[in-house]
Amino acid sequence: MTESGSFGGEDVAQRWFPVAASSDAPFRHVAQAKLLGREYAIWRADDGYVNAWENRCLHRGVRLSIGQNEGTELRCTYHGWRYSSRSGGCTYIPAHPADAPAQTICNQTYRCEERHGLIWVTEAGTGELPRHAAFGSSTSEDASLALRALPLNAPASLVLEMLEAYPAHTAAEATGSHSFQFQVADGDGGGVVAFVQPVDEAHCVIRPVLVDAPPDSRRLEVLRSEALILNRFREVVEQEAASRPSTPVIERDILPVLGRAASETSVSFAPSQSRTELRVVVTTKTPVADGVMSFEFAPIATPGEPAVLPTAQPGAHIDVQLPNGLIRQYSLTNRSGDQERYVIGVKLEPESTGGSTCLHETVREGDVLAISAPRNNFPLRRSATRTILIAGGIGLTPLLAMAETLHAAGQPFEFHCFARSQAHLPFASRLEAMGASVTTHLGLDPSQTARAIEQALGRHEPAAHVYLCGPAPMLDAAQQIAADSDWPEDAVHFEYFANTNEVDRSSSFEISLARSSLTLSVGPGETILDVLRSNGVPLDASCQQGACGTCVVELLDGEPQHQDVHLKPSERAAGDRIITCVSRAAAGERLVLDI
Amino acid sequence: MASVVHSANVTVTDQRCTDPVVLNLWHPIAAVLELEPGGEHRSRLLGAHLTYGITSVGDLWASADGQELPVIERYGYLWTSLGSPEGGDSLGIPFEIPEAHEPDRRNMNAGSFQVATSAPRAIENFLDMGHFPYVHTDLLGVEPHTEVADYQVDIHDGEIWATDCLFFQPVAAASATGGQISEYTYRVPHPFCVMLYKNVPTDPSRRDVIAIFVQAMTEETVRVHNFYSMVDETTSDNGLRRFQQVIFSQDKPILENQRPTKLPLDPRVETPIRADQSAIVYRRWLTELGLTYAVIPA
């Protein structure tokens, strides 16, 4: 990097600079800013969070400042890729609607703060935005007023150099390396602090802030006087700049993007590493239905790093490492781009092996848990003409994320929630907020449920999709109903909580790894996944019971015995992939895997 | 024009081209029918200042900085070269478009537009189907039909061919009366020229040819010549031109907001997906040709 030198020696990449006024980032707008030769897209999410990103979609380099601010996501105007607020991670690629974007597809984000009515960015700084002495130490009692920005055809260094030539009747003094202070008129309190934003080698912007906003009666006088002073100064500086040899403007290097993770600061996603290495704090634990508890997880801030969770797409789940040693999978209920925290819903299953009991009884607010980055094996098509969501009981959780995503985007959807009673319906208030798009079906028996599903589905129309999540008998029935109603298989998407089929692990067989010409044997009681991992082949896995689909591998040859509930019938029949945590081959057979 | 200095390899965009691969190519300059007989026209090519025209007796001519240049007429355009187009380099031979010679074809220039982009960025945009629903909404694409199905990309005889490209289009052409699944074949016979063959809405047995011939004025400024060779008998020339102008005016603001303007050939600088297969092959092909002009070499 050669650029720092042209901005006056010190390591300006570490410094904080204002790049825009808070008012430049109004509701659903994307602003363009430039600092030290680098362009930024500045946009405020609906929750108030201000994002500062490299102004360049990582796909084809189009400026994100000509994209659309959709409230929690920014949509690139060229191919409609969506990126999440906070993390900058990609949440949707319309050209491949059936595929969840990889966590590595993530725009370059920068640390950003709002103070004194200005938006501040640091390119590479690790420290906090420093307080300027003129404003006192308290944040809450800041009575400052950001004034109109003054763009100059002159480098920032010249502005600072020429403070001495400043009109004599005001006492200006440099305060720190990129700001100066002056009095406007008698009785204007702390006067004006002017921050200098170096735009590039030849341009800067002066951003003045009145330390104490004057009373209304004096406002006009103070503002006029301030504008007069700074405009005179601008004239002097620009005249001097024009008389000097022009400084060439350096175009900044474009940062390669591949290999970046959604939150490189807090977690790495290399599949060979341990799965639950993101630390979160349990901020709330609230009952949301009979026997259902909701948990909110917030990121843990480390000094100098923003607390940002990895990007979650609707339909995604995380692994949660529990204090009792168990690892369990839970769907995120957050809508896309709502990245301030993760929210899961956990149903107490006293009969099960202890995951839900531990969460309900042991885990408390304030506890720190280890979780994995979200994985999405249940992606939502965001451009469908008709979207039907069918949830049974706690199966509502991933579909809630989908429904709220579509609701926020103003897209139509039909969300059918089946529960034993109103008291058993989780997240009822969030459902209520979506109004007529949600239909609840309470206390139905299996045949009534089947009829309700049949009615909900109706006949398939082009670009209509249905998403199902719930107990296995309900999903089995719903898939059959969909097939009977001529819904094509590629329009029917489902996620089982768990694989309730009995898994047969008795056979012993061989696996060949096509890319490494390695042949390994899998014995009774072992899984393909176990054997791969114990031979040093890194393979991502999550539920390890054939439900989530994370550990899928392409199959090049051999007859698989599928025992999962993730693959669709046609995918099973094609025989070109296998879920390695449960499925295997018949005794003495051989499978050739594309690894 | 202001110079832009690049930190990586200090080049000034106005500089004359020194890349032999590009110098030895034929480059499109203007539609012959739009030349005023006896007049003198000015433009730029690869940084050089160009003068060209057609004499009152119909001879084409071109010169750069006082030096006479070779000229050739192909598909209704004047082409010239700053190097030795017939010598050695097979890319120098103007490529053939056999369809354009069919007797009932309408061959025309549907417009020449100046754009602040590099020639390879313009070519990639033409090869790209994924942007149809977002940039050419309700014409070449529309939601929910956003999926780009896998297609074939091969290199035959030094040209890139992308086949089996299927996409739903609401108004695929000026003569279309309703939505259709269009089948495209793309062909890149020249680093700065690309064409597509698409089924004719009124006669599926034949294929219209739509091409862009890109004149690299500088590394970051182009003039895009839109060539049509159509079977369409119903739409007027103006109707075809208007359709192409609408489409192109939608692409132009995108192209002018891509950074870097020059095409990066290092595959790590941008993030391709399966739908970008033709662009992946195009970038690799440019690298293999050793082309360095208007690109950021890998």
Break the fold down into its secondary structure elements and pairings.
The complex is a heterodimer of chains A (595) and B (298).
Chain A: E1 16-21, E2 30-35, E3 38-44, E4 50-54, E5 68-69, E6 73-75, E7 82-84, E8 90-92, E9 109-115, E10 118-122, E11 145-146, E12 150-152, H1 156-161, E13 173-174, E14 179-182, E15 192-200, E16 203-210, H2 216-243, E17 250-251, E18 278-289, E19 292-299, E20 317-321, E21 327-331, E22 342-347, H3 355-361, E23 368-371, E24 386-392, H4 396-408, E25 414-419, H5 428-432, E26 438-442, H6 446-457, E27 464-470, H7 472-484, E28 492-496, E29 509-513, E30 518-522, H8 528-534, E31 552-557, E32 560-561, H9 569-574, E33 577-579, E34 584-585, E35 590-593
Parallel strand pairs in A: 24-25, 24-27, 25-26, 27-28, 29-35
Antiparallel strand pairs in A: 1-10, 2-3, 3-4, 4-9, 5-6, 6-7, 7-8, 9-10, 11-16, 12-16, 13-14, 14-15, 15-16, 18-19, 18-23, 19-22, 20-21, 20-23, 29-30, 31-33, 31-35, 32-34
Chain B: E1 5-6, H1 20-23, E2 27-31, E3 41-45, E4 48-54, E5 60-64, E6 67-68, E7 71-74, E8 77-80, E9 106-115, H2 119-127, H3 132-135, E10 152-156, E11 159-169, E12 180-190, E13 193-200, E14 203-218, E15 221-230, H4 237-255, E16 263-264, H5 277-289, E17 295-296
Parallel strand pairs in B: 16-17
Antiparallel strand pairs in B: 2-8, 3-4, 4-5, 5-6, 7-8, 9-15, 10-11, 11-12, 12-13, 13-14, 14-15
Summarize the structure in words.
The complex is a heterodimer of chains A (595) and B (298). By secondary structure, chain A is an alpha+beta fold. Chain A has 9 helices and 35 strands. In chain A, α6 packs across α7. The radius of gyration of chain A is 29 Å and the shape is elongated. The N terminus of chain A is likely disordered. The two termini of chain B are 28 Å apart. The N terminus of chain B is likely disordered. The chains are: A alpha+beta (595), B alpha+beta (298).
